[in-house]
């Protein structure tokens, strides 16, 4: 779980930053909860990495990160903690994900990784 994300950051923007930092293909799930009316995020996100090694490397590189490649400087550093739900399948089948009907608000799932999971959540 990533905390202290700027409210202007979109899910696509976060995924792009994750990929730009060397984790393309190693991040298979990203969900940035948003307010359905204002479409502004809640300041946190859930990210799943494909291996414990990738997760450890992501933690080293992103914990306390203060800027993005787009040159935006963050007011508060990113704080990473272990989420209660772990793994792609568990994240995809959580009750929270089943409630998201609008494709605009669905999580990013790495193409090909969602095969055989209960909901279709290709994301934007």
Automatic annotation (TrEMBL):
Q: Where is the Mei2-like C-terminal RNA recognition motif domain?
A: 1-91
What InterPro entries has UniProt attached to this entry?
A: Mei2-like_Rrm_C, Nucleotide-bd_a/b_plait_sf, RBD_domain_sf
Q: Which Pfam families match?
A: RRM_2
UniProt-recorded name of the protein: Mei2-like C-terminal RNA recognition motif domain-containing protein
């Amino acid at each position: 779980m990533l905390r202290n994300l700027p409210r202007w950051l979109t899910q696509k923007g976060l995924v792009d930053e994750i990929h730009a930092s060397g984790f393309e293909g190693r991040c298979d799930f990203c969900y940035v909860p948003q307010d359905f009316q204002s479409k502004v995020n809640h300041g946190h996100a859930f990210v799943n990495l494909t291996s414990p090694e990738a997760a450890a490397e992501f933690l080293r590189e992103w914990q306390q990160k203060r800027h993005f490649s787009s040159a935006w400087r963050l007011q508060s550093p990113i704080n990473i903690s272990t989420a209660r739900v772990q793994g792609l399948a568990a994240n995809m089948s959580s009750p929270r994900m089943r409630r998201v009907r609008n494709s605009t608000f669905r999580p990013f799932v790495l193409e090909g990784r969602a095969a055989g999971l209960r909901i279709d959540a290709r994301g934007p």
